[in-house]
Every structure is written in structure tokens, then in C-alpha cells.
TrEMBL record:
It comes from the Bacteria. It comes from Clostridium neuense. Residues 9-37, 43-89 form the DUF2089 domain. InterPro entries: DUF2089, DUF2089_Zn_ribbon. This is DUF2089 domain-containing protein.
Length: 122
């Protein structure tokens, strides 16, 4: 039985490295310090599920809201969490809220007035 690779240390939460690879056909073993091939390998299963939903809906936050049954701020928070886990600076992106975009979303009914106020106050 194969297990999923752990991506974080269960003791301290640090990133884990792969140190041993074995061929299932000839049993050749290679030992060294390997890193996971993509940054996505370091995401939790919840983060991966969110990314899958986000991509399936082609980045349409309103559709992600509907599918997951969560609010716009929650979708943004989950997206920020994924971006942080991938090593991107979320502070910079979050501070550049486009007020016109927020007002347009409010006019289209994509967000509630309360959500618009929260976004503008960030």
C-alpha cells in the first residue's frame, strides 16, 4: 500500500525533503536529498481542493463561492492562504484593492454591501 508523501514535519511544521527513491521493478535504491518537484506538492489537501475548485471555475470567484458555499472574503482568504503557501507575498497584492472593481462587483450583485465595506477597509 502506498501512502501520500508528507509535505510538512509533524513535529515542527517545517518542509520535508525526500531522501530515498526505490524502483518498484528492479529495487534499485537512490539516496540523496531531493525536493518535491513543484511548489504545489507543499500544499495541504484542503488547499489543493480549493485550487482545483478555483481552476475548474476558471477563477470566477462568484462560482467558487456558490460551489463551496462560502462568502467572497472567505474565498479571498483561502486564495491568500494558497498564495502564501506557494511562497508569494500576499501583503503586497492585498494592499492594492481596486476600489472601482469593488464597486463594480457590488453593482453586479457579486458581493454584498458588508463584503464591499470589508474589502475597501483592508
Amino acid at each position: 500500500m502506498a501512502y501520500k508523501i508528507l509535505n510538512k514535519c509533524p513535529v515542527c511544521g517545517g518542509k520535508l525533503h525526500i531522501t530515498k527513491l526505490e524502483c518498484s521493478k528492479c529495487n534499485t535504491v537512490i539516496e540523496n536529498k531531493f525536493e518535491l518537484s513543484t511548489r504545489f506538492e507543499y500544499l495541504t489537501s484542503d488547499q489543493l481542493n480549493f485550487v482545483g475548485t478555483f481552476l475548474k471555475n476558471r477563477g470566477n470567484i462568484k462560482d467558487v463561492e456558490k460551489e463551496l458555499g462560502i462568502s467572497y472574503p472567505t474565498v479571498r482568504a483561502k486564495l491568500d492562504d494558497v498564495l502564501t503557501a506557494l511562497g508569494y507575498n500576499v501583503q503586497q497584492a492585498a494592499s492594492n484593492v481596486d476600489k472601482k472593481k469593488v464597486i463594480d462587483m457590488l453593482d453586479k450583485g457579486e458581493i454584498s454591501p458588508d463584503e464591499a465595506i470589508k474589502m475597501l477597509n483592508e
